[in-house]
Design a protein that fits this description.
Elements lengths: L11 H4 L14 H13 L18 E6 L2 E6 L18 H11 L4 E15 L5 E14 H17 L7 E5 L4 H12 L4 E4 L5 H10 L2 E7 L3 H7 L8 E5 L17 E4 H10 L12 E6 L9 E5 H11 L11 E4 L6 H13 L2 E4 L19 H5 L3 E4 L1 H18 L1 H20 L7 H15 L8 E4 L6 H11 L3 E5 L9 E2 L7 E5 L15 E7 L6 E2 L3 H7 E3 L5 E11 L5 E6 L3 E3 L5 E3 H8 L5 E8 L6 E7 L1 H11 L6 H6 L1 H17 L10 E4 L19 H7 L1 H7 L2
Parallel strand pairs: 3-13, 5-6, 5-7, 6-10, 7-8, 8-9, 12-13, 12-14, 14-15, 15-16, 27-28
Antiparallel strand pairs: 1-2, 2-18, 3-4, 10-11, 11-20, 16-17, 18-19, 19-22, 21-22, 22-23, 24-25, 26-27
Helix pairs in contact: 2-14, 3-4, 3-10, 4-5, 4-8, 9-10, 12-13, 12-15, 13-14
């Protein structure tokens, strides 16, 4: 779900997700070890009745012709028609919110941890880091949240905001974000969503292009707004969240031309003088959501209320037994379509949403004060969304800790993991029976406490998740992972693993790239998505809209994703390429940059990578941000002397080691010789949204990277 490519690994907060410093790795205990050994001996000789045949999947792919173009489509086999709403009458998010609040009025809805204290801790190099002492979650019920939303909706108009102008939300994920959003929806006001990490130029472009008159933000953003105030044309009001109970103290002189009030002040205005709601229609524009902007300035996608409720209705059946007993941990950016779609589903289901932060997620996260529990430990969520980089980070942390422990711990973990993996791949009863229970108790239960110990399902989107990582998380966390594929342009909706999706997906041939829907044994081509989740187009960009959005003769709206996929015989869609990432080399060989990057990023020495191919040469090269911890550990073991990390990255021995590791990974992923970078450049500084080298969704900005490291790339080809 969300942007289909990219990596969160180089986000500052992802790097601070420390999963290797785990307190769970204690001795397993004498009896546990004995029991494990007994099971390991007995299970292989149990009768063949333990084995079960693989289930035969239902074939759902059918050939179609749309707008005179042959394609290959997948439609939900259980439905006669596409699902449009989660229940009758919930035609917009404003209607859905009001109805869900009435149905679940007394249930917990929005939870926020109380900040007990803060302190600054100095590191050995003199830098200071903020540490938080956090308490329990404090909850708003659905009834309380509806009252606050209604008050904010009224107060916004009393403040002087015109319904016909846009409101923007420029903030990290938090309960107030959702309250402000629903308040705007209640008065039929279109909301512009902007990543909190967006750079100045992109922020100014987004606010001016949409002519935002009221901006909602955290108080910490006031300084940034003060610096660019002269370039913001339409802003009249700023509503800030009381992070530290700080208002404009007069030091931000440029903001004096605007009306600046706190969220609570706006709510008080509305409570004192309520205004009747003006609920939207399903075709009304709910959001202008700015995409990551991997090339140039970000584009604003116009999302209707109908788009949001259609995706919500489609996902609810995917999560088994979803309902009021579920607790969801929200920490990904709400300005990203994946998180907003997930929270919309939780709202519709009556689940509880507890807000956290990537920097406070676990007991060992960077902003957690020693002795304070992380968000997951305190909340004990049953449901969690994640991007592949987070799951990869969890996997790396567990594996590193097992390696460090060595001996009995390492052997026992490996036996347990291999037994569970063999059981799952073989589809035999040991996957769910006595052996599974025993391994869970002896080995995996300790690991699961990392995320609270109650996770029953995880939703993964935003980028491709490797099969190895999926299996690892399935086994170690004991929870299935539902992988979603979609884009902002389809409000995250397109396909979902092992579910009957309610939208329509199809392939169309891309002759130039050699992908055809007639390919055997599996049809291949560009993925095109149609249905109620397909959005209205790009804001003030009709040319780009007409380029990638099409309406067929039956009125079905289609979005041309630019992704290349293939359908397996059972109807499973696999993403195999991206049109814009394919480069033709000097001797005619095609190389898919995204495919190569995805494969090589699994190398333990690599934190981020951009592969570059010059069409006038017959080989590719790569820019690599190495894993500092892993590389320094290698250097220590190899006896490599170095002054600092940049010095280590420049050493020929280091470059040779990384290249050898890349070659091994490339061969294991069956990459061809031309797909293996012939030369590499190691870059010591991470790529972050603040640097402008990756998007807010942590997708690499290929053009920006090429421009910044132009000289380095030229040297690699010299």
């Amino acid at each position: 779900m969300g942007d289909p490519s990219g990596s969160f690994l180089n986000s500052p907060w992802i790097k601070n997700l420390n999963f290797s410093n785990l307190s769970i790795w204690k001795d397993y205990g004498e009896y546990g070890v004995v029991a494990a050994i007994v099971i390991g001996i007995l299970i292989p000789v149990l009768p063949s009745v333990w084995f079960m045949g693989k289930k035969r999947g239902k074939v759902r792919g059918v050939p179609v012709e749309v707008s005179g173009e042959a394609g290959y489509a997948v439609r939900n086999a259980k439905k006669k028609q596409l699902v449009e709403v989660p229940w009758k009458g919930a035609t917009t998010m404003a209607h859905l919110f009001e109805q869900s609040c009435k149905k679940n009025s007394k249930n917990q809805f929005l939870g926020t941890r109380k900040i007990i204290g803060k302190e600054l801790v100095s590191s050995t190099d003199g830098r200071q880091f903020e540490k938080l002492h956090l308490g329990d979650y404090e909850w708003l019920s659905y009834e309380d949240a509806f009252a606050r939303v209604s008050n904010f909706a009224s107060g916004l108009l009393k403040l002087g905001h015109n319904r016909d102008s846009h409101v923007a939300i420029f903030s990290d994920t938090r309960a107030e974000w959702l309250i402000a959003l629903q308040g705007c929806f209640r008065q039929n006001i279109t909301v512009v969503t902007i990543y909190a990490s967006l750079g100045e130029d992109a922020l100014i472009h987004s606010l001016n292009e949409t002519q935002v008159s009221t901006l909602i933000c955290e108080s910490k953003q006031l300084t940034k707004l003060d610096a660019i105030s002269s370039r913001l044309t339409f802003i009249q009001n700023i509503i800030y969240f009381e992070d530290d109970n700080k208002a404009n103290d007069g030091s931000l002189g440029n903001l004096s031309k605007w009306t600046i009030v706190s969220l609570s002040e706006v709510e008080k205005l509305g409570e004192k003088d309520p205004v009747n709601p003006s609920l939207p229609s399903k075709d009304g524009i709910a959001l202008v959501m700015y995409t990551s902007g991997s090339t140039g300035l970000p584009k604003g996608v116009m999302i209707t209320h109908g788009n949001i409720v259609a995706t919500t209705a489609a996902v609810i059946p995917v999560i088994p037994n979803l309902g009021r007993k579920d607790v969801y941990l929200a920490y990904l950016p709400l300005a990203h379509v994946f998180e907003l779609a997930a929270e919309s589903v939780m709202l519709a289901a009556g689940a509880a949403i507890g807000y956290g932060s990537p920097l406070t997620l676990t007991d060992t996260s960077s902003k957690i004060k020693k002795g304070t529990k992380g968000d997951a430990t305190v909340l004990k969520p049953t449901l969690l969304t994640a991007v592949p980089a987070i799951l990869d980070r969890i996997r790396d942390g567990v594996v590193k800790k097992v390696e460090e422990k060595g001996g009995l711990v390492k052997n026992l973990f490996q036996v347990a993991y291999n037994r569970r993996l063999a059981a799952i791949k073989g589809s035999w009863l040991g996957a769910w029976g006595l052996e599974k229970m025993m391994w869970d108790i002896i080995v995996f239960k300790k690991i699961r406490t990392l995320l609270g110990g109650q996770i029953r399902m995880m939703l993964c989107g935003g980028a491709p998740l490797s099969a190895d990582s999926q299996q690892f998380i399935n086994i170690c966390m004991g929870a299935p992972i539902g992988q979603g594929y979609g884009l902002t342009e389809t409000f995250a909706g397109a396909t979902f693993s092992e579910c009957d999706d309610t939208s329509v997906g199809r392939l169309v041939s891309w002759e130039q790239g050699g992908y055809k829907t007639s390919d055997k044994p599996m049809p291949r081509g560009e993925i095109v998505v149609g249905g109620f989740s397909v959005t209205a187009g790009y804001f003030k960009n009709p040319e780009k809209t007409d380029e990638v959005y099409k309406v067929d003769e039956k009125g079905m709206r289609w979005f041309y994703t630019g992704d290349i996929g293939r359908f397996h015989p059972d109807g499973c869609l696999e993403i195999i390429d991206r049109k814009k990432d394919i480069v033709k080399l000097q001797h005619g060989e095609y190389i898919s940059l995204g495919k190569v990057e995805a494969a090589l990023s699994t190398c333990s020495l690599v934190d981020n990578i951009m592969v570059y191919a010059d069409p006038f040469h017959n080989y590719c090269v790569a820019l690599i941000v190495p894993s500092q911890q892993t590389l320094e550990k290698w250097a220590q073991e190899a006896g490599i002397a170095y002054k600092d990390f940049p010095d280590l990255c420049d050493k020929s021995e280091t470059i040779s080691e990384v290249q050898q590791s890349l070659s091994k990974v490339a061969k294991s992923n069956k990459l061809s010789k031309t797909e293996i970078p012939a030369k590499i450049k190691l870059l010591p500084d991470p790529w972050t949204p603040e640097s402008g080298l990756v998007t807010a969704a942590l997708k690499i900005k290929r053009e920006q990277l090429k421009a910044k490291f132009k000289d380095e790339l030229e040297k690699l080809y010299s």
